[in-house]
Structures
1.
Amino acid sequence: MVKQLKEKMMSSKESILQKIKQNQPKELNELPNLEPLKESELDVLEQYKSVLKSIGGDFVEVSNYAEITDFVKEKFDTSKRILTTLPELSEVANLDWTSDDPHSLQDAELILVKAHFGVAENSALWITDEVMGQRVSTFIPQYLAIVVNKKDIVAKMHQAYDRIGNQEYGFGTFIAGPSKTADIEQSLVLGAHGARGLTVFLME
Amino acid sequence: MSSNKTIPHSEAAALFNKNEERVNWHDETLWFVREKRDRSAHQIPEWELLRETASQIKFNVLSNIHDYLVEFESNAQKNGIIVHWAANAEEHNVIVHSILEKHNIKQMVKSKSMLTEECHLNDYLTNRGIDVIDSDLGERIVQLRNEPPSHIVLPAIHLKKEDVSETFHEHLGTEKGNIDPQYLTESARQHLRDVFLTRKAALTGVNFAVAETGEFVVCTNEGNADMGAHLADVHIACMGFEKLIPQREHLGVFLRLLARSATGQPITTFSSHFKKPNDGKEIHIVIVDNGRSEQLGREDFRNSLKCIRCGACMNTCPVYRRSGGHSYHNAVAGPIGSILAPNLDMKKNADLPFASTLCGSCTNVCPVKIDIHDQLYKWRQVLVKEGYTPKVKTIAMKTMATVLANPTVFEIAGKAGRFTMKNLPGLVNNKLNKWYDQREMPEVPEESFREWYKKNGKATKGKNDEQ
Ligand code: SF4
């Protein structure tokens, strides 16, 4: 049965590809130049902040990790489970969870990670599994906080992909604001399945 | 959903139109989304360049798709992803089922995928004893109601809070009569969190697949694709082969366009790039044809394969907004659905290219510059020629063709038309004229443009000639 199926799938592959080759347009269309799209007059930091606010996220400007620690102590319930991949935050958050079963993160109240960089035009933050500890860590907690250096904010998505280049990762994601839905009569609700709130720490 | 019991679009639309208040509300809700799209697009000075660039990338994809697919497969395999090929819906369903069987998995969580709707995967799996739960909130709502989604981006856009409240009360035990979206969403969150935590397999769609790197990107606002995929052992991603793009950097172009065109957001909350499976886990990709290679060969319609499924053409379409997604009896509704559907089944979907005013609004908003209304017009010609259209429309089309082809007849017909509308309105505003359903006919001008031009245009032309 499995062998039969395998053979069938093989032949499907061949026939699909053959049909495509036969039917695709003969004239070759060159790829366009992306350079003109990179021009920008954005004030990146200001743009970043205003877009983030407009999509339901929040930011705090900080000059060091101690300020983040203080902020977490003041604003979050530290009796609940708080996790991070950043050793600098070990005073308020647990570091020893990255090889746990991902399901065990279900009761995380807050997870703090660092982003490689941010994008001004849409306030997205680029995060890969190298900095997230577990792939599910930026989706499963009740609240999410992400640290990014102010100097690491680029203008647009084109600059973002220039920066990513051919970087290796198993999983990477742009995160822009907290999880949200508007599926019920277009009323915006924050916290669909993922984090109910996103705090971005903009670091000097 | 049997193919011989399809209600034609005009009849289904007439049913939808019975509740006038609801139609107006539906119309306004979608227009609101369209306006959000406009505001968002206007904030990007290079918007038109962006559309043009996206369109050119997609042209390149279409003319190289064979090589890009081969490249994608080999790179994905190098990344440790298992690649499958499905010639049609049936093969797609068999492949998905066999992966679940191999792992002895009886329950699966799904995030939004219009392709699986196209293939009727849920029914297929359910009939084989697999429990499938859709996790996108809108999809979950329509799934509980046993309905298909009515929109590719906003699956439950046709429902009111009261409907959702009723559905959740019945299936999730929420408080009767509580219509607060916050409360209802929270209930769904709790219910689906349990699902995410217990499923061993997750299925997602694919928004873009990158030939150069063998990775694929899934965009959601809710994070449901990620919750499913990262908590399960097996992740199955299903894609039509046209989702391919050449290089990673091209994602920058499409991610800027997708959400802005869809809902007016600057980007979806999560744009997740899946490149390699985690240790001990599996990622499968099912690459599906199901009529796409056929469409690729139809020169007039191949551009429809550039579609990135943003839904903008639906939100702007005056017919979609007033007839509802279900009236299109196809997984993808609205203008683009009406181009894709006849390719799959000309007989069954012959009515759909006629469900358009050809006003061109769809073409104007399309982020990849598909000539949507031209293609709808071309489908009409093909369908008439092949004899698939209903009689009344065939006669109307033939008459139209004669009239348009002959200037004298056109002029007389115009005069006669204006005379009739003015003096015998009953002849136009009656049940036989499908156009008059749900519409007021316009005021009749005193003279036609042609007559006006004869008098005034000549004078202008004369002046120009003197210069
Ligand atoms: S045809 Fe264009 S506007 Fe319509 S869904 Fe596809 S990409 Fe969007």
Note: The first strand of chain B starts at residue 82 and ends at 86.
2.
Amino acid sequence: MDHAASPGRLPGAFMTPGSSSFVDFLQGHAPTLLPGMRDLTGGEAPATPHGTTIVALAFDRGVVMAGDRRATMGSMIAHREIEKVFPADEFSAVGIAGTAGLAVELVRLFQLELEHYEKIEGTLLSLDGKANRLSTMIRGNLGLAMQGLAVVPLFAGYDLDRGVGRIFSYDVTGGRYEERDHHSVGSGSVFARGSLKKLWRPGLEATAAVRVAVGALVDAADDDSATGGPDESRRIFPVVASVTAAGYVRVPQDELGRIVEDVLDERRAEHRRDRRETGGIDR
Amino acid sequence: MSMPFYVSPEQLMKDRADYARKGIARGRSVVVLQYEDGIAFATENPSRALHKISEIYDRIAFAAVGKYNEFENLRVAGVRYADLRGYSYDRKDVNARGLANAYAQTLGTVFTTESKPLEVELVVAEVGDSPAGDQIYRLSYDGSVADEHGYGHVVMGGQAERLGTVLAEEWRAGMSLPEVLSVAVRVLGSAGEGEQGEPRAIAASQLEVAVLDRTRPRRAFRRLTSSLLEELLAVAPPPA
């Protein structure tokens, strides 16, 4: 199995039995392609786009995850329609906050890791297995995180064994924490969490769960400058996806548009009522 | 010191080819058929876990006959090859031709340089946007590659020649999925037990069937489980 002796032939590492993990395979065969494996000199990290608020909540048949569309670089808006919520595989979703470039690469590798396992083994990883795998991958990024290039994902999926939706949050060291009912990460998460606490209730059905997620993002955007609210003039809405026994489904743009309008109308109506009651000018 | 034996290269290669062919002939056949919405793969395989047909990448599948450990090793290598390529470049840059070439080199090198050839025969297939864009490559134990596109159907394995004749009579372009599946089952069943056995009816539970369905969005590969297969076979029209 000497690669050099016969060029063109699949390298020995490809033919070695064993690992079902793509990351492990890369580590042996092409470690430079792995994120977090690069040597970096010390010093301050350069300014890079950051992704912000992600929310996830459980509902009666699964989980809903949503992310705003803004990426910021310092006080500047770097991008207005970045996507921060992705399908990890058919039955799970991953949302990312933190250094956008690294986070997107991490998601790409995570998606591939799950798919690779599925193809090699002919079966899906358990939801806990997927969550642990993500943990290891974040830990691999610790060196960069120490320099300020941190990635903090939120992972949610449908547990096929238990028949419920589950949510996992992480810290920069790869610590994994299972959350009850709902959670949010990113700079706007303080406000989103407050909002989720008030809006979420047990046994929500699918559309109501999407409304709660959108509402939480609107609240986060209201108070956090790094979180973008729904952009009505450009019609850029958050990315909202649900994961149920039927798999990962992104809420279609027109349906989401209606829900966003609804949430905003409701907020406007409340605001008007508020002004009337307090004797404001907006009669 | 004794003189080493002289064996002519022709004899050496012939012996190896005979050896590989014998190994392959022991296994059951796999049929690969184009239909209007994709490519179907079928084989008689009572095992639910040890597959002869697998997904390699979004639009690419793999089917094999011969020695399980050898083609399983090649399958895993193919998945690694495709995933690495897709990760380094883009998912669009992974194609069946590149994979078929890598397999051909590997099979050819093993055949000529190692003491024992691989006792396998493979098909690497990719679905395109239309039947004309489909690619089907058949690879032999010695590394030879045949581009089977244009024929629309391939048989590999023990009684490939006999089954190929039956298949060529029954298959035509533009068939629906239930139609090609019923053709596949009849063709596989025409290889009776033993050399001159009677045609058999193979139960859906004894079949391993998968498709590359071009109408599916990203990952085109789908296994047809026995309950779904029974439904599909039930709607198929009787043979003309």
Note: The radius of gyration of chain A is 21 Å.
